[in-house]
Amino acid sequence: GAVVSQHPSWVICKSGTSVKIECRSLDFQATTMFWYRQFPKQSLMLMATSNEGSKATYEQGVEKDKFLINHASLTLSTLTVTSAHPEDSSFYICSADPGQGVSTGELFFGEGSRLTVL
Amino acid sequence: AQSVTQLDSQVPVFEEAPVELRCNYSSSVSVYLFWYVQYPNQGLQLLLKYLSGSTLVKGINGFEAEFNKSQTSFHLRKPSVHISDTAEYFCAVSEPQAAGNKLTFGGGTRVLVKP
Of A41, A104, A114, which is closest to B101 when you measure between CB atoms? Predict the structure, then answer.
């Protein structure tokens, strides 16, 4: 149980286009999902907290107009990288919280999505 | 604000030898502590977690960690590593009082197991 799926696992796009990454909790509901960005050989940096039915909360320094987050249902959150540029190339990982808003101490992570912008 | 420091960025180790990955944290409140493993081009898998209770925590794949409140540490150990343990390991903390499970990660330790 507690499976989180990301799609696509990898994507290559041209500079200036937009790319959407989906994060789905397959066997549980998640009122909260988190989006991270990971550069090569570096740690995960939290980009934003996605709350079902409300606006996402972005970390300092993350452009909300650049990285659009939508959490339309209890099992799906999407990250759209708008007008992508080569510097947006990275590994994006989502995680889902099954705790229904209560801290249970565990998150479940997707497999990650590698974005390459040419 | 909380922070996590993993003191070793890389740890080479021979197969069947023991390994210890160090993790120190700072926080003004009590925390939950986690170790995750990441294989190449994959997401994170939970190895173990400390929420409360016994300070020695046993996880999957033969790993264990000990919470030391006075030293604010949560070091990860395995008595005998396998080639398949080659991966990136992340220590993370969250605050139980905060809504949701917002994790703060350390910089990661890359373990390379040599035959």
Answer: A104
